[in-house]
Write a structure and sequence with these properties.
The protein is mainly alpha-helical and 226 residues long. 57% of the residues lie in helices and 7% in strands. It has one domain. The protein has a two-stranded antiparallel ribbon. A two-stranded antiparallel ribbon has the order 3-4.
C-alpha cells in the first residue's frame, strides 16, 4: 500500500512543500470556483463565464501534480503476479530496470513538454529528435490567449516582457500551459528518487504491492480490535 514520504534533503523538502502546497491550493480553488458557479447559476441565473475553463485548467494541473505525488508515496497500482515468481534478488533487478525505463520515459516527455510550451512563453524549443542537443529559433506565440479567463491586473507587469507592451485581454496561454514542463520535471525528479531508493535498498518496488490483501488485513485487524 502507499507509504508516507519524508524528505531527507533540503531540495527534497523544498520540492515536497511546493508540490503539496500546490495540490492543496488547486483543490481549494476548484472547490470555491465550482461552488460559486453553482450558487450563481441556480440562485441568480448567472455565473462565472470563465469558471469552467479555470476549473478545467486547474484539474489538468492537479492531474500532473498528482502523477508525481503518487510516485513519491508509491501509490501507483501495478500487477506483480509475474514478478513475484522470481527470487528477491531478481525482483530487485527488475525493479531497477523498470525505474531506468521510467526515468528515460520522463526525460523524453519533458523534452516534448518544453518544446510545446516554450513558444507560448516566447522561448525557443530544443533541437534533437530524442534528447535536447541545443535550441532552435521558434515562432513567438507569447501573444496567444486563453478563451474566457480574463487577464488579472496584478499580472500586467508581464505585458512589456512577453507581449511587446501590448495589453492582454485574456490570460496568456503560457501561464496555464506551464504545468506541462513543471509537472513532467517533478515526475522525472520523483522517478530518480525512486531509483535511488531501490539502489540503496530502501524500497523493493515502484508500485503498490498487494494493496487488496493489505486492505483486507487492515479490516480484519479493525474487526478483531472491536
Amino acid at each position: 500500500m502507499a507509504h508516507p514520504y519524508e524528505a531527507k534533503t533540503a531540495l527534497g523538502r523544498i520540492v515536497n512543500e511546493f508540490e503539496e502546497t500546490a495540490i492543496a491550493l488547486i483543490l481549494g480553488l476548484m472547490t470555491i470556483i465550482t461552488f460559486i458557479n453553482v450558487v450563481l447559476r441556480y440562485g441568480f441565473n448567472t455565473g462565472l463565464i470563465w469558471g469552467l475553463e479555470a476549473v478545467t485548467f486547474l484539474f489538468a494541473w492537479l492531474v500532473l501534480f498528482g502523477v508525481s505525488y503518487a510516485v513519491k508515496v508509491t501509490a501507483h497500482l501495478g500487477v506483480d503476479a509475474v514478478i513475484n515468481l522470481f527470487s528477491p534478488s531478481k525482483r530487485r533487478v527488475i525493479a531497477l530496470v523498470a525505474a531506468t525505463i521510467c526515468i528515460i520515459y520522463a526525460a523524453l516527455v519533458l523534452k516534448g513538454a518544453w518544446d510545446y510550451w516554450a513558444p507560448f512563453a516566447g522561448l525557443d524549443a530544443t533541437t534533437g529528435r530524442w534528447f535536447p542537443t541545443g535550441f532552435a529559433d521558434s515562432r513567438d506565440q507569447a501573444w496567444y490567449e486563453v478563451v474566457d479567463m480574463p487577464m488579472p491586473d496584478w499580472l500586467r507587469f508581464i505585458e512589456p516582457i512577453m507581449n511587446e507592451g501590448e495589453a492582454y485581454e485574456k490570460l496568456p496561454r503560457f501561464i496555464p500551459y506551464a504545468i506541462l514542463p513543471i509537472g513532467i520535471a517533478l515526475l522525472l525528479f520523483r522517478f530518480i528518487q525512486a531509483g535511488l531508493r531501490l539502489i540503496r535498498g530502501e524500497a523493493t518496488s515502484l508500485i503498490v504491492s498487494h494493496e487488496a490483501e493489505d486492505d483486507v488485513r487492515d479490516v480484519q485487524h479493525m474487526n478483531a480490535g472491536n
